[in-house]
User: Fold this.
Amino acid sequence: MGVYVPNKILTNNDLEKIVDTSDAWIRARTGIVERRVVEGDTATSDLAVLAAKAALEDGGVHIDEVDLILVTTSTPDMIFPSTACLVQKKLNSRGAAAFDMQAACTGFIYGMTVASQFIETGMYKTVLLIGADAFTKHINWKDRGTSVIFGDGAGAFVLREADKGYGLLSSYLAADGSGADLLKIPAGGSYHPGSEESVREGLHFVYMNGSEVFKFAVRIFPEAVQRALDKAGLTVDDIDYLVPHQANIRIINSGIERLGINKDKVVINLDRYGNTSTASIPLALYDLYKTGSLKRGDVLVFVGFGAGLTWGANVIRWY
Ligand code: COA
Assistant:
């Protein structure tokens, strides 16, 4: 696996200078201290490529061995072509299949599930799964409900068949489109294509009903973990590490309290990166991976939630 975050750090104190907020409020209400932000014309594909290169190097896999490049993102470089095709071009890969998937902050959980199907069916041997987002490109910095939360980053896995009983054991995926209006970028698609009016009204920015998204996340977090564990025939006690989507420390604390999971088993790095959307789970996992803490046989649970509304969980036995 591999990850990439931009070099530029935006602290809560920096935000205090551009929007009506405070370091104390952001820490207390979200747990975030700083986040990474892209600069200039850096796009999502640039983050994705650097994470992908790191993952390929880590696995000792050459790009020509990759059968499918699957990018999960909700901040693609452009509507089309897919970011996966732009990544393919930058990696000098030819012939591999390439496409994007969009499940917002649940993207990596959906992506892991879809990528593994191609391997399980025998259609592909090697899948490059990349979760990359550059949300700060779509933030209205004067909107304190969103500007304090999001950051940019990317994470990637090179996936191959594992020994029986290892790898992805189960997935639980869910969605409720009736919550579509709670978190969205309204303009730039076929409903509100870019226009003078859409720009004037700020419809290209992320809009979020924070308190409703918060209530939804708190409700589905424990349920998603439990359902994925049930499908794998495991219990909460079997979890070695829980890797939750890094949106808000209060959502994570509520979820683990209701599940009865000890905080020592929960990976948290949102203080350093904020909510990096689809990249947040691989970025958090990488903290464990690079310190050599993961052992073969460890049971990991990923849990995520986000726009759509979408949510889900993966149970993985580390290989
Ligand atoms: N700085 C200072 N004050 C802020 C603020 C900020 N950045 N954002 C909101 N406030 C104020 C509000 O104006 C309100 O003030 P009031 O009581 O005087 O009216 C007060 O803080 C509480 O506002 P509220 O919106 O209820 O805050 P909250 O505790 O729900 O926190 C979020 C706001 C956005 C941090 C929180 O709702 C959240 O994390 N939601 C989920 C977001 C999420 O997970 N999104 C991604 C899904 S993938």
About this structure: Residues 167-317 form a domain with the Peroxisomal Thiolase; Chain A, domain 1 fold (CATH 3.40.47.10).
